[in-house]
Amino acid sequence: MKITLEVRHIFIPFRFSYGHAKASHRGVESIICSARDENGALGIGEAVPRHYVTGEQCGSVMADVIRIFPVLAEAATTIGSLRAKLLELADSWEGPFPSCAFCVVDLALVDLLTRQTGVPFHSALGPQQLRTLSYSGSIGMGKKWFLHAQLLAYRAIGLKSFKLKVGSDHDMESLRAVRKTLGDDVRIFVDANGAWDRETAIRRIEELHTLGIWAIEEPLKRRAPQQTKQQLDCEETLDETHFINNAWLRERSPIALIADESVISRRSLQMAVEHRAFDVVDIRLSKLGGGLLAASIVKQALDAGMQYYIGAMVGETAILATAGSQFGSVFSDHILIQGYSHGALHRRQITTGGPRLQLGGRLPVGQSPGLGISLKPGALDHVTRKKDLLE
Questions:
Q1: Are 194 and 221 in contact (CB under 8 A)?
Q2: What is the pLDDT of residues 42-86, one digit of tens each?
Q3: Which has the closest alpha carbon to 312: 120, 118, 25?
Q4: DSSP class of residue 135?
Q5: Rounded CA gap, 361 and 358, in Å?
Q6: What is the number of alpha carbons within 13 Å of residue 345 lying toward its C-beta?
Q7: Best label site of 35, 53, 93, 112, fewest CB within 10 Å?
Q8: 48 with 315: CB under 8 angstroms?
């Protein structure tokens, strides 16, 4: 059956900015794909490229989608055939791996196939283990009044688990404010986004430990990636030196180390495992090539004795957020799950349908065919910067 693909580069402005050590986001740039079959059935996918994570930008993702889509579309007769072809193509890929391009095509085709057969998206990943998920919050860097406003909102919602961005001179002050406002019973880990050298990191980690922080994500700097024709080669920076440095820190750290930007492929996870460099892996569909590839990486991590949590891209739309919830309902041994910030962040919503986040961060996982959400054509056109049609 013939499948066509519409690819869009979109930008949605935020109601307020969200910052961390590497960037301050005032909106989200995403790639949205719509896969349509001959009978008019539609599947949708999304990826959020960030150059400091996978090296990709929207232009490179759109170019790589043109290369990837025909190969995967030909195999998209069943989930099994699509999975086999996707793994084969990923493992044979030469050059910097285009995680976001794989992700957006993967999600669109899996959504299409599950809609065609009338089953939920999660059925493509395995047996569902959870019908309700408990989400944690994420607190970015910002001015004191903004931090206070975030904390009051989270207290009203009733969340009990948080990630806090660190890497500034005000980290300890912010953490004390979190404890004062939310209480001593909340569970907090921090994300440095590669802000420190080894000596600074161990000193800061010891300070964080005194406040009951259970883990730190990406504490160490890595060298700048080289520019290739299509994208920055971030995977090339994940060399032996990088993992040796993190292993050195892990041996001395009183809290767990989490890999995010250090694991962007199956190869980089294998390097992390061989060097015993991290305790936990952040599984984000956008940086790992979509649900089918991320599922294989979860298995790889668990086989190595590592734990994982399911993360999100700041400002992702309901498309990627819903895919994350479907993924989390299958892989139920995650430490925590994040996402669903679009309702608070986005000035414009481009989808309808799907579950809504409830008090306490609880989310009932959708049971409709596919992802169970639809695009709003007018709103989508309003935020579109470029689009292509692949036939």
A1: yes
A2: 999 999 999 989 999 999 999 999 999 999 999 999 999 999 999
A3: 25
A4: B
A5: 6
A6: 24
A7: 93
A8: yes
